[in-house]
Amino acid sequence: MINLPNDDHSCGWYQALPPAAPVKQLKGVQKADYAVLGAGFAGLAAARRLAEHHPQARIVLVDAQRVAEGASGRNSGFVIDLPHKFALEHPDPAHKQKLLGLNRSAIAQLDGLVQRHGIDCQWSAVGKYQGAVGERGEAFLDHFEHLMKDLGEPYRKVEHSELSAVLGTSYYRRAIFTPGGYLMQPAALVRGMAENLPDNVELLEQSPIRSLQREAGKWCLLGDEGEVQAPTLLLGTSIFTREFGYLKNRLLPVMTFASWTRPLTDAELARYGGELNWGLTPADHAGTTLRMTADRRILIRNSYKHVPRYGGSIDDGMRRRIQADHRQAFLARYPELAEVPFTHTWGGVYAISRNFTNFFGQLEDGVYASACDNGVGAAWGTISGSLLADLAVGAESAQLRDIQQVTGMPSLNPPEPFLGLGVRSRIALAKWHSRSEL
């Protein structure tokens, strides 16, 4: 039995979009040269690159939901060039430089698509802040500065008064600004890329695949009302890769949550007093992510949950408690905006591994996958999806060699119930330690 995505329907990014075009679903037998499962950042990039390699091939891209309803449309809207905090601590400088190069290649690819197709997604090269609330956060910030010096990347210290003028709150002591990151509206970006796929890519949405079978040298993707047959299958399914029997007991499903306000009025914006269109991530990784969007919305993201049944692990009572936590974080930063309501609270599922290793490569004959982005999906999904297509068609490149060198096999997890107990305990402990940074 395949456990399908079970996302809530209150993602603010998605609800802010205009209505989607009529859906095209999988019906009957569809024969293709390549099948790509999952239409998030990785799947979209893989399908596009396959089409570039083979413009005469038929490529079928299938998703269980509408494009942008899943994890790729639910993140906080950062596209980050720097390696993740844990990866920054890798002892090999060459390893970190490879990650940096891959992330920047992804940003260049996304930037080119946004400009070429005129995708309206608040795409902006404004960098990002990493902020500290108290002494614990400042200790993490000092460590981050040390890592940036080792990496040889530009950064700038932002002290309290300057930071307060940007954020419209004096809640943070200081921050480090790094210039290479981008901000965007993730659901708008993902939908825009899907609307501008090459002509030889056919997108089928709301078409859940229930099982995979190998027959006569072809992979059969079996859905409710049809199937896709193709000799080569690329999986951009992230955590759901394990539902098809691959990487079993190696991926951990974690959900993180966000809430945002309606757009601020002119009077509220005057009381806020800060700038528009910035993003701040916490120096303490278990702290709060904060954004002011280009269209005047304040977004709060924190709260992590182990979700073995994905969205089915979260009920309305838990969502209300999470929103209350977000409200507390919002009021601590913006008490002068106490009357501004949250309009949406949502969660998104992603895959992490215990050894913080991303999987990239061939799973078996004719099956390729990029899985486990460890929480940095926009850039990693884009570049890993593109390079997965290169691997599938046999196109060699320096970047393909780089991604093969920085990825590996996620480590095995302990069996349940020990896994769930351990993950929940780790999340609870991190929240307690980081309570001053929330």
Model description:
- It comes from Oceanisphaera psychrotolerans.
- The chain has 438 residues and is α/β, with parallel strands linked by helices.
- It folds into two domains: 186 residues, FAD/NAD(P)-binding domain (3-Layer(bba) Sandwich); 178 residues, D-Amino Acid Oxidase, subunit A, domain 2 (D-Amino Acid Oxidase, Chain A, domain 2, 2-Layer Sandwich), CATH 3.30.9.10.
- The protein contains twelve helices and 20 strands.
- A hairpin with a 2-residue loop joins strand 11 and strand 12.
- The protein is globular and about 65 Å long.
How much of the sequence lies in strands comes to 15-25%
Main sheet record = 8 strands, mixed
Q: Which descriptor suits the 3D outline?
A: globular
Our count of domains comes out at: 2
CATH H level, superfamily name of the largest domain: FAD/NAD(P)-binding domain
Mind telling me which CATH architecture of the largest domain this is?
Answer: 3-Layer(bba) Sandwich
Which structural class should the secondary elements be placed in? Answer: alpha/beta
Distinctive features:
six-stranded mixed sheet; D-Amino Acid Oxidase, Chain A, domain 2; 438 residues; FAD/NAD(P)-binding domain
List the helices and strands and how they pair.
Layout: H1 12-15, E1 28-31, E2 34-37, H2 41-53, E3 59-62, E4 78-79, H3 85-88, H4 93-117, E5 128-132, H5 135-151, E6 156-158, H6 160-167, E7 174-178, E8 182-183, H7 186-195, E9 201-204, E10 209-215, E11 218-223, E12 226-230, E13 232-235, E14 252-261, H8 266-272, E15 278-282, E16 289-292, E17 298-306, H9 316-333, E18 342-352, E19 359-364, E20 367-371, H10 377-393, H11 398-406, H12 418-433
Parallel strand pairs: 1-12, 2-3, 2-13, 3-9, 5-15, 13-20
Antiparallel strand pairs: 4-8, 5-7, 6-7, 10-11, 11-12, 14-17, 14-18, 15-16, 16-17, 19-20
